[in-house]
UniProtKB/TrEMBL annotation:
Keywords: Lyase, Pyridoxal phosphate. The lineage of its organism: Bacteria, Thermotogati, Deinococcota, Deinococci, Thermales. Its EC number is 4.3.1.19. It holds the Pfam family ACT. The gene is tdcB. PANTHER family: L-THREONINE DEHYDRATASE CATABOLIC TDCB, THREONINE DEHYDRATASE, MITOCHONDRIAL-RELATED. One of its GO terms (biological process) is L-serine catabolic process. SUPFAM superfamilies: Tryptophan synthase beta subunit-like PLP-dependent enzymes. One of its GO terms (molecular function) is threonine deaminase activity. It comes from the Bacteria. Signal peptide: none annotated. This is L-threonine ammonia-lyase. Its cofactor is pyridoxal 5'-phosphate. Residues 142-222 form the ACT domain.
Length: 223
């Protein structure tokens, strides 16, 4: 309200989570509309129905309302933590998520500001958010390969990974669950790499050493 009152030419954009987004529905209907459920990590803005006093203010002062997914909000949280050194909760990072996702277009040279507010985010959720973003950025990768089941075989794989400059986050040694051929054992590696290109280089190093690693790709879970 203050910005629009003092500088009417400033474009004000509101941001809602896709999992709880009644504002655009209400603007279209011209009256407050409720959504049946709120499913979002941005619980601070998970309001299922805009208030009768709030909606007229949005109509008057807000030029556009965009919606962001939880993945886009997570990217905003991770960007604040990694690049700005700020701990910001989901609701406070929604605007950053919208900017990073390109939901709010702007021209070079334009001044753009977003509000970063609220640090009320659970530590476990913050760690999961950052880990998920690292996976999507290709900085965490999951490899599966079979090695000979004898002493020293796993150590050779670990040495190759180290020589390629990757860090082992988790390692799983599996026999029965993989139904590996007799005399071999399945190995799953969760690796931390610098970027997607480094991940591909680690994969090639293992292939050149005679292994046949399979890389698990990032996929979408069913709702």
């Amino acid at each position: 309200m203050a910005v629009k009152s003092l500088r009417p030419e400033v474009r004000v954009v509101g941001v809602q989570a896709e999992g709880c987004a009644p504002v655009n529905l209400s603007l279209k209907a011209g009256a407050p509309v409720s959504v049946p459920a709120a499913q979002t990590i941005a619980d601070g803005i998970a309001v299922k129905r805009p208030g009768r006093l709030t909606l007229p203010l949005i109509q008057r002062y807000v030029d556009q309302v965009v919606e962001v997914s939880d993945d886009e909000i997570a990217r905003g949280i991770a960007h604040c933590a990694q690049d700005l050194k700020l701990v910001v909760e989901g609701a406070g990072a929604a605007g950053m998520g919208a900017l990073l996702a390109g939901k709010v277009p702007f021209s070079p040279g334009q001044t753009v500001a977003t509000v970063l507010c609220g640090g009320n985010i659970d530590g476990n959720l913050l760690s999961r958010v950052i880990e998920q973003v690292l996976v999507r950025q290709g900085r965490y990768i999951l490899l599966k390969l079979a090695v000979v089941d004898r002493p020293g075989a796993l150590a050779r794989v670990v040495s190759l990974v180290a020589e390629a400059g990757a860090n082992i986050v988790d390692i799983f040694h599996r026999r029965a669950l993989w139904l590996a051929p007799l005399g071999k054992v399945g190995v799953e590696l969760v690796l931390e790499v610098r970027d997607a290109q480094h991940g591909e280089a680690v994969l090639r190093a293992l292939e050149q050493a005679g292994y046949h690693p399979e890389r698990e790709r990032v996929g979408d879970w069913p709702d």
